[in-house]
Q: What sequence folds into this?
């Protein structure tokens, strides 16, 4: 797994912000919008299409996405959708997209041009995708089994984390329901939302993420969806063993 982006919805540096993290622009404090990609036996599985998708894939030297899984429908996880247009040529057909019915409805509405029956002027004018709706049951894609993890993203939104083997990716989460905790036991690596030091209504803060990691006891925990209030270099020095701030380009073995 590669963490393509580990930043909050506005990214880091944030527009108009003059805090030390945004002004300093140290390499591991530069965070694009959240996304990850998994190298599976059958190809590359992308988690979310952030607005920074094109630059993320180019940065990591990744030329092809073979399938996509969406955590939820918020813009910072969705708006790179149009960058999927090229992959139909490499795959010889539409890109499979695995998502909840809510995300599928949102995609059809926001990107209505991609789901029209109208004849297109040329191949590649729109993203060619195949929407595959998922629930909470495990599903197979590109030679691996993906376990969706139901999570809460504030009081109004339900989102999915995803577990592959002993690695789990859980961005945009304020609370893990008790019924989902059992799906996160026995992990080698947990990637978890940790927005900032102060509490937030729709995201875990640092203390909440630490508490979850200490309860689940994965071998290693990485924070993602981090705002500019979280300095990679300062916070890492204060975290317990086995817990660290993630960064764009971090590579995590799939075990």
A:
């Amino acid at each position: 797994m590669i963490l393509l982006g580990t930043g909050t919805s506005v990214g880091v540096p944030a527009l108009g912000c003059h805090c030390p993290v945004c002004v300093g622009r140290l390499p591991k404090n530069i965070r694009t919008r959240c996304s990850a990609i998994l190298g599976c036996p059958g190809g590359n599985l992308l988690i979310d299409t952030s607005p920074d998708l094109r630059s993320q894939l180019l940065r990591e030297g990744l030329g092809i996405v073979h399938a996509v899984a969406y955590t939820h429908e918020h813009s910072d996880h969705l708006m790179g959708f149009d960058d999927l247009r090229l992959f139909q040529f490499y795959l010889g057909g539409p890109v499979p997209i695995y998502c909840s019915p809510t995300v599928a409805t949102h995609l059809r509405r926001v990107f209505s041009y991609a789901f029209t029956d109208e004849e297109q002027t040329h191949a590649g004018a729109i993203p060619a995708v195949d929407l595959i709706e998922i629930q909470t049951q495990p599903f197979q894609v590109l030679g691996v089994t993906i376990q969706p993890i139901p999570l809460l993203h504030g009081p109004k939104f339900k989102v999915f984390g995803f577990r592959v083997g002993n690695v789990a990716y859980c961005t945009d989460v304020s609370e893990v329901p008790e019924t989902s905790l059992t799906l996160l036991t026995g992990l080698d690596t947990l990637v978890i939302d940790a927005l900032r030091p102060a509490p937030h209504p729709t995201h875990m803060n640092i203390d909440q993420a630490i508490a979850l990691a200490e309860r689940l006891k994965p071998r290693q925990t990485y924070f993602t969806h981090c705002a500019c209030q979280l300095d990679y270099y300062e916070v890492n020095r204060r975290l317990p063993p086995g817990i660290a701030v993630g960064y764009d380009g971090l590579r995590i073995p799939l075990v």
User: Anything to note?
Assistant: The mean pLDDT is 97.
